Amino acid sequence: MKRISALFLVLGFALSVSSVWAQSTLVYGTTDKVTDMDPASAYDFHTWEIFQNVSSGLMAYTPGTTNLVPALATGYTINAAGDEYTFKLRKGVKFSNGTPFTASVVKWNIDRVAKLNGDPAALVTQYVKSVDVVDDYTVKFVLTGPLSYLPALVATPTYFPMDPSVYPVDKIAKDVGELTGGEIVALGPYRLTSFKRDEEAIFEANPNYWGKEPGIKKIIIRYFADATTMRLALEKGEIDLAFKSMNPSDVNDLMKSGKFNAVKIPGPQIRYLCFETSESVFTNKALRQAVAALINRPEINQKVYLGQNAPLYSMIPMGMSYHTDDFKTAWGDGNVAAAEKILKGLGYTKDKPFTFDLWYTPSHYGDPEVNMAEVLKAQLEKTPLVRTTIKSAEWATYKQQFNNKQMPAYFLGWYPDYIDPDDYTSPFAQTEGSKGNGIFFSSKVWDDLFIQEQQTTKDAVRNSTFAKMQKMWTDEVMTAPIYQGNLYVFSKKNVSGVKIGPTLIFNYDQLKLAK
Amino acid sequence: MRHLASYILTRFLLAIPMVFIMLTIVFVVLRVMPGDPVNAMLGGHAPQKVIDKKKEELGLNKPIAAQYVDYLGKLARFDLGDSMIFKQKVSQPIIEKLPATIELTLFGLLVSLGLGIPLGASAARRRRSGGDFGIRLYANVVYCIPVFWMGLLLQLIFGIFLGWFPISGRTSPRLEVSSFSKTGFYIIDTLRIGNIGAFGDVMWHLVLPAFTLGIVLSGIFVRLTRANMLDVLKSDYILAARARGIPERRVVYNHGLRNALIPIVTMLGLQFSLLLAGAILTESTFSWPGMGRLLLERIYLRDYPTIQGVIVVYTLVVSAMSLLVDLLYAAIDPRVKY
Question: pLDDT tier at A21 (50, 70, 90 boundaries)?
């Protein structure tokens, strides 16, 4: 018995010693996952978050905002036609291994992304014809046509310069281990010094960083399989900060406890109901309008998300330029009278109601998804003229089904590729983009409107185009917006500097850890 | 010795058709199920031409038979292929995750044997007593409990209410795994570098998952040990031992238990596959970064090569375990010879 007690004492001492040692380090928990450690292939928020901390773009967002400012560039000029951007680069910048940063590095990386044609390559190839080195510190982007939002595109990790001597030129690096030297060499405030998939990622301050020194020298990310376990780890003090994604009930409990700092982020994520417009019952836009009228967004937000999100009345999220609340004006919430008027006009009665299948996917968007489907079903059936059947499929099947036009109405969600209203509208209403989301909407009028807003850099023109589109959306209703998601970061009281804006970019170098 | 080598070789050769059958079933089922990796991976962001190109790149546009022949060709060269979702060899995550699963299942097995055999022997010794009834009740109850529910129960009681044990992961978040991880077997790794603090942390994290697996499977070992012990305790040599005045405890545990072990060892081999299946759910409950969690995640993503690779490895592990159990017979029962 004495031996066992002694062993416990030794273990306890050793564990407490390791805890003390770890105080200078911030531990951040997440349920997210890393995909490919190569900007030519990565196309997801968490992997991009890592690149945003180990590297930099020519342009960057001021932490916590949507203000684009020069970063590795000192500024840019646009030609009169709007199809050539010339960036002046910052001088004296060095990679974490000491290699100098020049215009040829920018060209090498963008050419590589286009050549390897990985998942995000379209972000380059759709817009960029060529990248020309003017001199060591000047680089020119020749575009396929006039484009208003190239500065936002170059702020995405797909355009980030990495050290050419580290990444293979002719293939996507499968993992960090495949890089020369076994480490990402880039231009960000941190170096990724260790990575163990699904377990941990360790970041240490980059001594060659061109910007301000990070507030915390070492950051460890711990990967959790589920949100509840992550919440418990935070409560037990095993992690200092938890981000993405908490369950609504966990958010409420943690808020009420008052033991943690809570930062609410007006997320760029939107949720909406999609309609298959080419072959399903929803070919008739009047039926889409009836469904849009019956949706009661504040009720969904309250009942399903405990009031943590925000009802959304346009596909362009709140806080973004050109947003209007047109769906509220046109249809309101739970507008049974308007829906019944449409449905009666189409010949539907109590005995012969309008019936359709409402689809959701159970895990891709989190546990509350089933509740959202049930609440919406109840809202739709407030009129006896509508009857719905809820159906579900796992994400891989779900995606195939909406591509094959097998689901008349289904929930989807959107995280933007780049922060611009175009990215919230063209993928749903422009002919090509609409197919990819299973909507199959096609109209020359709409396609022309998109070309107009994409090719102009004049704010007034874009403003009037998007205002017109949002009004027209309430008539076509190819999708019906439901809510804009908020995200929550919880941290211990001694953690400060959490600045995450609508871009969802989390700059670790802003964090501070008090003793 | 020559006979033993030939026996091992025969068993090894028999494992090949077993792997082949399993793989064929998994291969076909995955491809006839709705959904594919490209759809799961690209979401709604990618244009159709990108999706088509990706399918072509991954060979998903070929007929299933052609895909199957390609896959078998690779497998014959001991190549499990590349993941369709992550740009990595299938063998890479398997090599990374397998040690975690082996650590968990071995400790789960130890717990189930450590609980099952003594409790079964004790129940047989006190046949029809209150203790016997209680142990049999325990065996029936734990055998019926789903493993994930047992996990949640232990997490709630010992992790949350009492706060004695961690409820997730293989190590504490503050412990830097890269500072000691070499083989992936954290117990060995921490002992190798003499880091007692890290070793304690690893063991602490193993307690609840191992007990979850072990308790559920201990039920069958309790019943099996009890039934065999009852038969053995009726044998003539046990009667003779008692007649010679050998203390009852020695009669039961030294003379009876060893002879009752042979059918238990047989069951051990059969139970190992159940243990691996249980590990899939246990790993999910405890965020344990092992093969089970890898399999579940990749099923959602329809990452065909990784799912097939994991199944191949599982089949090989079960075959190896079954062979090991057969070899153990010879050690336990002198009558068995190869």
Answer: very low
Q: Least CA distance to B290: which residue of chain A?
A: A198
Chain segment A59-76, per-residue pLDDT in tens: 999 998 889 999 999 999
CA nearest to B312, candidates B25, B5, B9: B25
* Residue A144, number of CB atoms within 10 A of its CB: 12
Which helix (H) or strand (E) segment holds residue B208: the answer is helix B196-233
State the count of interchain CB pairs (< 8 A) between A and B: 158
Main-chain phi, psi angles of A30, to 5 degrees:
-150, 160
For residue A396, the model assigns a pLDDT of 78
- In 10 A of CB A328, how many CB atoms? 15
Interface with A, mutate which of B201, B287, B291 (most A CBs under 10 A): B287
Q: Taking 90 as the threshold, does the pLDDT of residue A388 lie above it?
A: yes
Structure tokens at A442: 């096609």
Residue B16 has a CB neighbour count (10 Å cut-off) of: 10
Mean pLDDT of A31-56: 91
On whether the CB atoms of residues A43 and A416 are closer than 8 A, the answer is no
- Tell me how far apart the terminal alpha carbons of chain B are, to the nearest angstrom: 8
Q: Does the pLDDT of residue A8 top 50, yes or no?
A: no
Q: Which residues in chain A touch residue B40, judged by CB atoms under 8 angstroms apart? A: 395-396, 399
Given a cut of 90, whether residue B60 has pLDDT beyond it is no
The lowest-confidence range among A17-21, A360-364, B27-31 is A17-21
Which residues of chain A neighbour B100 with C-beta distances below 8 Å? none
Whether the pLDDT of residue A449 is over 90: the answer is yes
Entry pTM? 0.78
- Closest residue in chain A to residue B40, using alpha carbons only: A396
Positive or negative, the CA dihedral A401, A403, A404, A405 is positive
Rounded CA gap, B66 and B59, in Å?
9
Residue A203: closest C-alpha in chain B:
B176
Strand order through the sheet with A138-143 = A73-78, A84-89, A138-143, A128-135
Could you give the CA distance from residue B27 to residue B50 in angstroms, rounded to a whole number? 25
- Round to whole Å and give the CA distance between A222 and B208: 20
H/E/C letters for each residue in B122-148?
HHHHCCCCHHHHHHHHHHHHHHHCCHH
ipTM: 0.72
Mean pLDDT of chain A: 91
- The strand ranges marked E within A102-189 are 128-135, 138-143
More confident residue, B42 or B126: B126
- How far CA A284 is from CA of A279, A335, A383, A442, B179, in Å, comes to 10, 19, 19, 14, 62
**Each residue's pLDDT tens digit, B4-19:** 788 788 888 888 888 8
Q: Greatest CA span in chain A, whole angstroms?
A: 86
Instruction: Check CB contact under 8 Å for B39 and A403.
Output: yes
Q: What is the pLDDT of residue B196?
A: 93
Distance CA A419, CA A52 (A): 15
Distance of alpha carbon A164 from alpha carbon A450, whole angstroms: 36
Three-state secondary-structure class, residue A267: strand
In angstroms, what separates the C-alpha of B179 from chain A's closest C-alpha? 9
Q: Residue A106 and residue A98: Cα distance in Å, rounded?
A: 16
Q: Using omega within 30 degrees of 0 as the cis cutoff, is the peptide bond preceding A245 cis? A: yes
